[in-house]
Amino acid sequence: MNGSKRKKVIAGNWKMNKTAAEAAMLIENLIPAVKDAECEVVILVPFLNISTAIKMCEGTNIRVGAQNCHFAESGAFTGEISVPMLIEAGVEFVVVGHSERRQYFGETDDSVNKKAKAVIENGLYAIVCVGESLEEREAGDTEKVVGKQVKAALFDVSSEHIGKLIIAYEPIWAIGTGRTATPEQAQEVCKFIRETVKNLYSDEIAENMVIQYGGSMNPGNAEELLALEDVDGGLIGGASLKADDFKAIVDAANVK
Q1: Cα separation of 118 and 124, whole Å?
Q2: Architecture of domain 3-253
Q3: pLDDT digits 0-9 by tens, 90-101
Q4: 115-167: pLDDT as tens digits
Q5: Which of 59, 134, 198, 241 is the most exposed place for a label (fewest CB within 10 A)?
Q6: What is the pLDDT of residues 72-113, one digit of tens each?
Q7: pTM for the full model?
Q8: Number of C-alpha atoms within 13 angstroms, CB side, residue 139?
Q9: Residues of 3-25 as b/e, b for ≥16 C-beta within 10 angstroms?
């Protein structure tokens, strides 16, 4: 199976942006803009916008996801949200281990693994983020760091559930900085991720796994990045907050 046969997934990570009213305005503009998309279109919204997003996206091709979760089903975890709560809300996707969660909120490889398993074992899709810092890349440690994160995230994940897992390569040095990995850099690391999955599971599982690129993808570079053999979509940050920019990236994913 080659990359052209994997259905691309374009997921907009809104991060901590948009009030409910602002979210409604953006979704209202997005619905007609992406209605003919051939790729999967996902919006990953703040917890308080999930209800608005689910209601507005019902009957459309836009799927809704959350930006985080806790790995426990319930308990004394003030401020946290469980996977069963997200299921009841109607969420289909959950981002796990975003670099901002790792950097600012102390998420570890172990907690990322626990969250990923909680998500996929409950039937939702987990978008698991991996990526290296600028210092790690300049030291030549990209594969060492990314390989470790991938192996940790997939630890004890069964072949039965692996189909619900998406890996997003997000070089930390290219997030929110305006810098983007070159097509060669993006392809090299995404191919390495696929090889790592192959070594852990099988050729078939690796070839079917969706691997996104998530470092400052925008309308100007999306078509070139999405044409790469091992890039199966994008985890979009800032460009997902403007309907026209997000549409342009979705359109780029539709190019054969």
Answers
A1: 9
A2: Alpha-Beta Barrel (3.20)
A3: 999 999 999 999
A4: 999 999 999 999 999 999 999 999 999 999 999 999 999 999 999 999 999 99
A5: 59
A6: 999 999 999 999 999 999 999 999 999 999 999 999 999 999
A7: 0.96
A8: 10
A9: beebebbbbbbbbebbeeeebbe
Q: Catalytic positions, please?
A: 98, 170
d(CA 160, CA 232): 21
Q: How far apart are the first and last CA of the chain?
A: 16
The DSSP-derived string for 21-87 is HHHHHHHHHHHHHSTT-SSEEEEEE-GGGHHHHHHHHTTSSEEEEES--BSSSSSS-TT--BHHHHH
Domain spans of the chain, in order of start = 3-253
In single-letter form, the type of residue at position 84 comes to: P
